[in-house]
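Appendix B. One record, verbatim.
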Amino acid sequence: MKQILIGFVFLLTFQTTQAQLFKKEKITYDANQGRGTTDFKFLRWGYFLGINNYDFNFDYNEDLRDIYVDTSPGFSVGLIGNMRINSFLDLRLEPGLFITTRELFYSEQYFQGVDFKESDLSREVKSTYIHVPLLLKISAKRINNFKPFIIGGFSTAINLSSNENNPDDNSKGQFRTTSRPLFYELGFGIDFYLYNFKFTPSIRGLFGMGDELVRDDDPNSPWTSNITRMQTRGVFINFTFQ
């Protein structure tokens, strides 16, 4: 369903973009239906659709085999609020809903001296984030109907699926994470100027700033005792419309 939706977005914009982006003539009344370029507005709005891929980075106490993280693409959707500082700088707020799933696989080394079942070697981590980044967008000078940029900043999230306060832990099959992680983000993209809107594909990296693991009640738990720190890593591919 996620792939179909992204494909539909591409098909919807392809016929319009192919005729407008790759010609030398600069679109004067772009992205605002003939009322003047949207870049000159102090405040402007938009929305984005995207694909995300979340991972975990682990630091360990002992030199055992790494926990393997099986990742799968997730879906992102959200709104954009943009404040113009000058022709090259914008301050941007991008609240959105990010849905993803990761699966952790443990080596049998973690369970030496402990009775375990095959199902104990894996844990599914489902995450539903309300993601709120505050970003600074630094743009180059516009060339015809293109404007490249870099973007970066800090973000927080509310993980609705964290189970941080769940009394059950891994001994009962429940892997827990913190509910309000902090991140920093870095990325780049290109603004494409069209007659009726501005279309922006971008790619961004996400990096956790603190330990996100909620440890099991048993200090010798095979699932959490060897983990010093667990932090989220992620990649976003967003398609923005303004």
